[in-house]
Amino acid sequence: MPPKTKVAQAPSTMKELKDTLWKAADKLRGSMDASQYKDVILGLVFLKYVSDAFDERREQIRAELEADGLNDDQIAQLIDDVDEYTGRGVFWVGASARWRFLAENAKGLPAEPGEAPKSIGLLIDEAMDQLMTDNPSLAATLPRIYNRDNVDQRRLGELLDLLNSARFTGHGATKARDILGEVYEYFLEKFAAAEGKRGGEFYTPAGVVRVLVEVLEPDHGRVYDPCCGSGGMFVQTEKFLEAHKKEGSNISVYGQELNERTWRMAKMNLAIHGLNGNLAGRWGDTFARDQHPDMQADFVLANPPFNIKDWARSESDPRWKYGVPPAGNANYAWIQHIISKLAPGGSAGVVMANGSMSSNSGGEGDIRAQLVEADLVSCMIALPTQLFRSTGIPVCTWFFAKDKTAGAHGGIDRTGQVLFIDARNLGHMVDRAERALSDDDIAKIAGTYHAWRGTKSATDAALTYADEPGFAYSATLAEIKAADYALTPGRYVGAADVEDDGEPIEEKIARLSAELFAQFDESERLAAVVREQLGRVL
Question: φ, ψ for residue 56 (rounded to 5)?
Answer without folding.
Answer: -65, -45
